[in-house]
Structure formats: C-alpha cells, structure tokens
Amino acid sequence: MSVRRVLIIGCNGLLGQKVTELFVRGSSYSITLASLEPKPLQAFPSVEYTPFDMTSKKEVRQLVYGCEPDVIINCAAMTNVDACENERELAWKINVGGLENLIEAARRSNARIVHVSSDYIFDGKAGPYTEEDRPEPLSYYGKTKLAGENALRMSGLEYFIARTMVLYGYAPGTKMNFALWLLQSLEKKIQVKVVNDQYGNPTLADDLAYGIMRGVEVERTGIYNIAGREIVHRHEFATRLASAFGFDPSLIIPIKTASLNQPAARPLKSGLITLKAEVELGIKPSNVDEGIAILKSQLSRSARRLGDSAPVPGQSGGKHSTGRKK
Ligand SMILES: NC(=O)c1ccc[n+]([C@@H]2O[C@H](COP(=O)([O-])OP(=O)(O)OC[C@H]3O[C@@H](n4cnc5c(N)ncnc54)[C@H](OP(=O)(O)O)[C@@H]3O)[C@@H](O)[C@H]2O)c1
Fold first, then answer.
1. 16 pocket-lining for ligand 1 (C-beta < 6 Å)
2. 191 C-alpha to center of ligand 1: Å?
3. Within 13 Å of residue 121, how many CA atoms lie on the same side as its CB?
4. What ligand 1 atom has the least distance to the C-alpha of 12?
5. Are 104 and 44 in contact, with CB atoms under 8 Å apart?
6. pLDDT tens-digit readout, 225-254
C-alpha cells in the first residue's frame, strides 16, 4: 500500500511539530493536523488543522471519518510524569482512552497506527533494554504507556510503536524540556542540581521524527526503540550541553534521584538499544554531541532567546526535571 493520507495527532507538541515538518516537506503526502489547542502552533499553507480532544469518542470519530487516513501518527499524550502520578484518571483517559478512541475510529478505513511509547515501561534495574525485554513500569505514566502499547498490539490493526526517551529539542511555543530548561537556567547563571544516577539515551526530537517517517515509508509493523545513539547519565548530558553553549558547568551540582522526592519513581539504569531500528529502518540517530550541535544551530537560526519556551508547571517535578533549581 502506498501511503497518501496521513493524520498527525498532537501536532503542537515537540515531537508533533517535528513529525509535521518532515511529512509536510515530503510532498507525496496529504496531511491533516490535529491537536488540543484551538490553533496550530505552526501553520502550514494548505494543510488543514482541526482542534479536537482525543478523549472524546465523538470528536475522534468526526476527525478520523472526515479525512479517512491511511496512517494515523499519534504524538499526543499526557507527558508530565508526576502529574500522571497525581492525576491518574486523567492520565489514563488521555494516554489509554484517547488511543483506544483512535483505534476504534481507525477500523473504518483500516488505517495503520503509529504510536509513541517510553522507556518508563521498564523498572530501570537492568537497562539498556531491547524491544524484547520484559516491561515492569514503576510509575503510573509508565503503566499508561504500557497499556497503550498493549491496546494497539491487540487491536488487529497494523501498528508501529516507537519507544523513546529523554526527548529534547526546540520547536516554537512548546513546553520546556530538560535541555531548554537547563540552558535557560545556566544562561541566567542559576545554579541547578541534576541527577547523576539516571542513565539513558538523550534523544533529539528530529531524530525520532525521522525514525517515525522511515517506519511509515517502509511499512514496518511492531515495536522499535528509536533513541539517541549514546547512553549517559543526566548530569553528563547537562555538562556537555553547558560546555557546547559556553556556560559554566560548575553551576550544575550532581545529586541523587532519591533526594528529589518526586511523586513518581524513575527508572535509573535505563536506556534503549536501537540496533533493530538502525538496521531495519536505516536510521542513524545523533549521539549526544551531534544532537547538541543540531539544537544549537536550530536555536541560533530561530534567533530565539532561551527564556521563550512555555514553562513546565512545577518544573522540579516535571517529566524532564531530573534536575532542580537550587
Ligand atoms: N518527552 C519525553 O521525554 C518523552 C520520553 C518518552 C516518550 N515520550 C512520548 O513521546 C510522545 C511525544 O512527546 P512530547 O514530549 O512531544 O509531548 P508534548 O510536547 O507534551 O506534546 C503532547 C501533545 O499532546 C497533545 N494533547 C494532549 N492531550 C490531548 C488531548 N486530550 N487531545 C488531543 N491532543 C492532546 C497536546 O496538544 P496541544 O499542544 O494542542 O495542547 C500536545 O500537542 C508522547 O507519546 C510521549 O509520551 C516522550
């Protein structure tokens, strides 16, 4: 089947914007965009945007039946890990119920669903993980991501699940991610505490978007780890960011995760082995320094001050906040 009509859900988020840019540039697609906000954060001429709430079965049906997509790419989720821990009903409604609504509506045009999952489905005792390793989520967010995977696997539809972690990058108007929060703090010479016991692959959002596009192009079904090519602990990532941007790394104080007392437990020895995706999708995600260099050039091209991103509510408890302002 050659893919023509693509529906991108959550197009206003960090990943959603990157996926949208790639698919809009690949002119062979007819694109429909949808997200929760009344307006798109990036407008593309001749690309239709529909505001909708994926927790509403009716709105999802209207959207999906209206554009009859060949592929639905779901970049939407409740992504704040601690908020998911505290607001469990809402987290389930969005991360599981929303996906189930998409699955139900997708049956009519037999659309393929592309979905994004997380390393938080693992307990972080024995990472890095392959696609075959046994999930054991520690947090409620992780439970919702695993339940979403299972709903899709059992749906009978063609599916592609991209598991990823520590997503960072710049897109206009998105909420803060770890890299932007850190750089903004250092630019203001604010001392920050960052954990040195959480290991994983920092993933440039552009690389994940490209992996997703390759998954659509080669029509793969199954689970694929798509993440940055290097595993480091968060403090190491932070100091490399600081050095690349010419900020003072001594402002970054190493701490342990336990001292943050966050509502949701984090996997510590995590990480994703990306060999399957590299071989089967033909991708080569950036390592840490390559990803940082791309981010730097994007930020300078956008002539954006680091402080422009929307703040994460309760930053020290946010999904990316494995660091804390002193
Ligand atoms: N961030 C990470 O470190 C990380 C790590 C592993 C996996 N992931 C997964 O990667 C995916 C993308 O993450 P991200 O960081 O790009 O997310 P994000 O920036 O938080 O964006 C999430 C998007 O979901 C949309 N959304 C939320 N609730 C919705 C609803 N009820 N109906 C319709 N749209 C809704 C939001 O819409 P509006 O903006 O229009 O309100 C937003 O565009 C998610 O599945 C996430 O779980 C992320």
1. yes
2. 29
3. 25
4. 43
5. no
6. 999 999 999 999 999 999 999 999 999 999
Q: At 314, which CATH number?
A: 3.90.25.10
Residues 192 and 117 in one domain: no
Q: What is the pLDDT of residues 30-50, one digit of tens each?
A: 999 999 999 999 888 889 999
Which residues belong to the active site?
141
* pLDDT above 50 for 188: yes
Number of domains in the chain: 2
Report the share of the chain in percent with pLDDT over 70.
92
Q: Which of 9, 36, 225 for a ligand 1 pocket mutation test, highest count of atoms within 8 Å of Cβ?
A: 36
pLDDT tens for each residue of 252-305: 999 999 999 999 999 999 999 999 999 999 999 999 999 999 999 999 988 655
Instruction: Please report the pLDDT score of residue 1 as a whole number.
Output: 53
CATH code, domain with 59: 3.40.50.720
53 lines ligand 1 (CB under 6 A): yes
Q: Give the domain extent around 219.
A: 5-167+202-225
Q: Are residues 187 and 215 in the same domain?
A: no
- d(C-alpha 125, C-alpha 253), whole Å: 24
- One DSSP character per residue, 150-214 reads HHHHTSSS-EEEEEE-SEE---TTPBP-HHHHHHHHHHTT--EEEESS-EE--EEHHHHHHHHHH
Q: Tell how far the Cα of 249 is from the centroid of ligand 1, in angstroms.
A: 30
